[in-house]
């Protein structure tokens, strides 16, 4: 069977949600015989005044680097003691987080980025964008968001919504591969509005045929609704799903800055891991190559 997940990058910041994401990463890597890259990013901060930009606390950067290097080494040793056959590598970046992730994604041919998610976003995160949401929208490969409270690391019930047509065959192949690695069952959920009913229904039937031909156990259902994110979340709860496989496609990107689009809705209202399939050929844009976390602009005297 083709291994669709060979290299996994997991973002590490030593918080509880990060530790949970690492546990998920090693469990998936063990099933897929995949390499793991533990990535921690050190972000600089700067002040801008009339003389230019000045890094705050530049003298402590080397000290912080050494502390993080030691902490990652301890984590690596601990993981290898539990999973001795796994290939594990540690990387430290001093960059904007997602830019650093994408450098490693490109250089190491990463197949999946895993990061922890806290669930509901507060108003500041809604305005500024949570880190997990930034990783999801800007990473140049598929992303798995792992809720902090999730403690099940096998995927015996795999929910696969059919709601858009992009990369559908890749999504079905991935779902089958995950199901076989976990001895799992696929729940195929066709979900559409009146406007796209015919094309989604046809795609749903093609997916059912593919899964049946490949002798994968599955069950299926079709829903007609305009509120896709809410219905997918509700179905995942009713079905006791262990993971949801989604296309990275935001159907509601026309909504205002303060409104919840499909991606934010599904993240906020779903408490199981969310696997977003992204076409690696279509790279997300990286906004800044600067490694400064934020700037404080000071007024000119007088």
TrEMBL record:
By its UniProt entry, which Gene3D superfamilies does this protein fall under? HUPs
Q: Domain UspA, which positions? A: 7-147
Q: Which Pfam families match?
A: Usp
InterPro entries in UniProt: Rossmann-like_a/b/a_fold, Universal_stress_UspA, UspA
Superkingdom to which the source organism belongs: Bacteria
Give the family, as the similarity comment puts it: Belongs to the universal stress protein A family.
Q: Name it.
A: Universal stress protein
What organism is recorded for this protein?
Chryseobacterium edaphi
């Amino acid at each position: 069977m083709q291994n669709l997940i060979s290299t996994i990058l997991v973002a590490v910041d030593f918080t509880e949600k990060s530790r949970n994401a690492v546990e998920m990463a090693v469990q998936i890597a063990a099933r897929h015989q995949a390499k793991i890259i533990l990535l921690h990013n050190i972000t600089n901060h700067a002040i801008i005044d009339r003389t230019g930009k000045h890094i705050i606390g530049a003298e402590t950067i080397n000290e912080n680097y050494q502390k993080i290097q030691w902490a990652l080494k301890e984590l690596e040793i601990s993981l290898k003691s539990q999973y001795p056959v796994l290939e594990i590598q540690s990387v430290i970046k001093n960059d904007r987080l997602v830019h650093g992730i994408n450098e490693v994604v490109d250089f190491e041919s990463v197949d999946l980025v895993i990061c922890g998610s806290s669930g509901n976003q507060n108003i500041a995160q809604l305005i500024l964008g949570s880190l997990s949401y930034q990783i999801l929208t800007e990473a140049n490969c598929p992303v798995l968001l792992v809720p902090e409270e999730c403690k099940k690391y096998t995927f015996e019930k795999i929910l696969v919504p059919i709601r858009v047509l992009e990369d559908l065959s890749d999504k079905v192949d991935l779902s089958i591969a995950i199901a076989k690695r976990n001895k799992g069952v696929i729940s195929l959920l066709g979900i559409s509005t009146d406007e796209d009913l015919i094309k989604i229904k046809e795609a749903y039937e093609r997916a059912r045929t593919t899964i049946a031909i490949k002798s994968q156990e599955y069950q299926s259902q079709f829903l007609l609704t305009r509120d896709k994110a809410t219905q997918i979340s509700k179905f995942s709860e009713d079905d006791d799903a262990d993971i949801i496989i989604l296309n990275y496609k935001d159907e509601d990107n026309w909504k205002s800055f303060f409104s919840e689009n499909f991606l934010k809705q599904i993240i906020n209202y779903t408490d199981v891991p969310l696997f977003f399939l992204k076409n690696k050929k279509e790279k997300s844009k990286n906004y800044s190559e600067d490694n400064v976390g934020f700037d404080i602009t000071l007024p000119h005297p007088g």
